Amino acid sequence: MTAIEGVPVVEAGGARIPLLGLGTWELRGATCARVVEQALRLGYRHIDTAQMYNNERDVGEGLRASGVKRGDVFVTTKIWPSHFTPRDLARSARERVAQLRLSEVDLLLLHWPNPQVPLAETLGALEKAKHDGLTRHIGISNFTVALIDEALKIAKEPLVCDQFECHPFLDQSKLIAACRRHGMAVVAYSPIARGAARNNGVLKRIGAAHKKTATQVCLRFLVQQDIVVIPRTSKVERLSENAAIFDFTLSRDEMDEIARLGSPDSRVVDWAYSGRMNWD
Ligand SMILES: NC(=O)c1ccc[n+]([C@@H]2O[C@H](COP(=O)([O-])OP(=O)(O)OC[C@H]3O[C@@H](n4cnc5c(N)ncnc54)[C@H](OP(=O)(O)O)[C@@H]3O)[C@@H](O)[C@H]2O)c1
Asked: Are 239 and 35 in contact (CB under 8 A)?
């Protein structure tokens, strides 16, 4: 018996993605392994990592220590854009599963777009990684509406999600609509705005009415729209708080009031980062 029973899933492109996952950016070493293990023991069934987080070994350790069957956990990792030429991507995909000590991952994402490598080449290589059995599904992250359209014209395999920054303070309605139009799942990163949700007055007031914290209301707002959330914490005690979001419902008025907190320029992750980046 786990603390969280039966986390709902979102279905997209043949994938069944648990609506709640654990983010692992900046978690490393023993802390990372311990948090992953505890999350799985509590009932989390989805873990998000990336080549760039330099923690796939630790995530793999946590997975094995938890005793949860491999087939019951959805594992996502991402390839960093400096590895987007077909040869680099092939090597990098093999490295990802080796680091995690798995035979395959569930979802392999392109972490950010890289305009320096033709998208057709990169997507072809990503699809090959799927055909080679290194991942069950493929997808993208930080792709704009225009880039999603471009990717879908090229792709021969379903791109099951776009993972991007999404929380009540940032208006992402256009990207969300684009994903829905194409049958892709939305995976929200920084879903609690890197902790800022906790101090928001509107979320606190609505939370008090439901005996929930502002953070829980923030996450509920997203999952109630079938948006997958991957909050990260380094504190085991917060794992339960972030997971207790499936036993209450926000009213239409509450959803509308929270939606009004959104503006176009409230990113917590620096988007300019991708444009400035020398991927090598
Ligand atoms: N695809 C991409 O480009 C991309 C970019 C960014 C993130 N991501 C993924 O998305 C995940 C989540 O995003 P994120 O890590 O940026 O931010 P986040 O999950 O929105 O917030 C994490 C922060 O919130 C704090 N926190 C967690 N639970 C809390 C609670 N119940 N009450 C108060 N504070 C709480 C954590 O501190 P404590 O550790 O002290 O609890 C941490 O500082 C990442 O870990 C990563 O897996 C992907």
From this structure: yes
- Pocket probe mutation, ligand 1, options 163, 175, 192, max atoms within 8 Å of Cβ: 192
Q: What is the pLDDT of residues 32-44, one digit of tens each?
A: 999 999 999 999 9
d(CA 88, CA 81): 10
Cβ neighbours for 68, distance < 8 A, ≥ 6 positions apart: 40, 41, 45
Q: Which of 163, 190, 221, 228 to mutate to test the pocket of ligand 1 (most atoms within 8 A of CB)?
A: 190
Q: Among candidates 35, 48, 6, 58, which has minimal Cα distance to 239? A: 35
**Is 53 tagged catalytic?**
yes
Mean pLDDT of 208-225: 98
pTM metric for this prediction: 0.96
Residue nearest to atom 14 of ligand 1 (CA): 190
At 251-265, the pLDDT tens digits run 999 999 999 999 888
